[in-house]
């Protein structure tokens, strides 16, 4: 089930984000992710349009949008590779005509995931906070269907 985020969800979302960030970005020092926890909790998730995916009552993932920008898509490590990310992505695609996101160039599995889900690489950038290369990727709704 996918539902709107509630304030009481924040600690679980931060846990999923932090563990997922450590796993997906082993090329970035874990201290960087630790330094981002407070801002994620106090600023980024509250300012985003966030939806959570649950299995029974357990939160297993979430997606956060800021207008047409996909700011976060994270699935609990124990529930990855079971289609939850694809379902959350399909959910936000139904609400928008286009979506952009940034993904680290070294995060090969995320790049493959987004490419399989109709995103294309638009340009290469450098993330100022980590000095790592990243791709700006985009998806546009096919208006012929």
TrEMBL record:
A matching Pfam family: Acetyltransf_7
GO molecular function: acyltransferase activity, transferring groups other than amino-acyl groups
N-acetyltransferase domain boundaries: 1-142
Domain of life: Bacteria
InterPro entries, sorted: Acyl_CoA_acyltransferase, GNAT_dom
Record's keyword annotation contains Acyltransferase: yes
Keywords: Acyltransferase, Transferase
Keyword Aminoacyl-tRNA synthetase: no
Gene3D superfamilies, sorted: 3.40.630.30
PANTHER family xrefs: PEPTIDYL-LYSINE N-ACETYLTRANSFERASE YJAB
Name of the protein described by the UniProt record: GNAT family N-acetyltransferase
Organism, as annotated: Virgibacillus halodenitrificans (Bacillus halodenitrificans)
Lineage per the UniProt record: Bacteria, Bacillati, Bacillota, Bacilli, Bacillales
């Amino acid at each position: 089930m996918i539902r709107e985020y509630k304030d009481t969800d924040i600690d679980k979302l931060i846990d999923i984000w932090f563990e997922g960030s450590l796993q997906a970005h082993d090329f970035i020092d874990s201290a960087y992710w630790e330094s981002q926890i407070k801002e994620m909790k106090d600023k980024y998730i509250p300012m985003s349009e966030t939806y959570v995916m649950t299995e029974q009552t357990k939160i297993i993932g979430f997606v956060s949008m800021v207008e047409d920008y996909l700011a976060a898509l994270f699935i609990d490590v124990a529930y990855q590779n079971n289609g939850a990310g694809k379902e959350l992505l399909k959910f936000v695609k139904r609400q928008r005509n286009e979506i952009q996101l940034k993904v680290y160039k070294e995060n090969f599995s995320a790049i493959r995931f987004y490419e399989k889900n109709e995103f294309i690489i638009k340009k290469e950038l450098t993330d100022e906070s980590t000095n790592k290369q990243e791709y700006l990727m985009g998806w546009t709704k096919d208006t012929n269907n």
